[in-house]
Write a structure and sequence with these properties.
The chain is mostly helical. Helix content is about 45%, strand content about 10%. The strands form 2 sheets. The chain has a two-stranded parallel ribbon. Strands 2-3 form a two-stranded antiparallel sheet. The protein is globular. The chain starts with a helix and ends with a helix.
Length: about 150
């Protein structure tokens, strides 16, 4: 593509509160992955785990759903890639509307018409209800720098 194209590219990423993300991943395995032929055998394992057990399992530690790594591993911001725009899952629709309008990809009037569909939604309680002190500490330690940089709280 060439360096010129890459330097001019509009790049965005979506981040999410890690405490909420792990609960979402747990419920994704239990409610959605079970229907995926390739993943169902792993989903069956998660179905029989408590949330703290899931976090400490190979499917919980260092993974988001079927993907390896932590959110921070997937981001290349800062000096190496200053043009990455970070949107927050917790406020995604509003952040995306603002981002698109700022980049003049939609007009101010079109912002009101943009509605994002919600796919792969799971049924669950608020994320705080899944944690005990030990599992909350574990997720904090795994994601400490990311949590601090993004101002996330438990």
């Amino acid at each position: 593509l060439g360096l010129d194209f890459v330097e001019k590219a509009i790049v965005m990423t979506v981040v999410r509160n890690p405490f909420d993300l792990y609960v979402s991943s747990y419920n994704w395995w239990r409610q959605i992955a079970i229907f995926n032929e390739r993943l169902s055998r792993f989903a069956c394992l998660v179905k029989n785990m408590s949330f703290p057990e899931f976090l400490r399992s190979p499917l919980g530690i260092g993974r988001i759903n079927e993907h390896c790594g932590f959110q921070a591993d997937w981001l290349s911001g800062g000096e190496s890639c200053p043009h990455i725009h970070q949107l927050y899952f917790e406020n995604l629709e509003a952040d995306l509307k603002d981002f698109l309008a700022e980049k003049e990809l939609i007009s101010k009037n079109q912002k009101d018409c943009l509605c994002l569909p919600w796919i792969n939604k799971t049924e669950r309680k608020g994320y705080q209800k899944y944690y005990d002190d030990s599992s909350a500490d574990l997720v904090y330690e795994w994601n400490k720098e990311f949590i601090i940089e993004n101002g996330y709280k438990f």
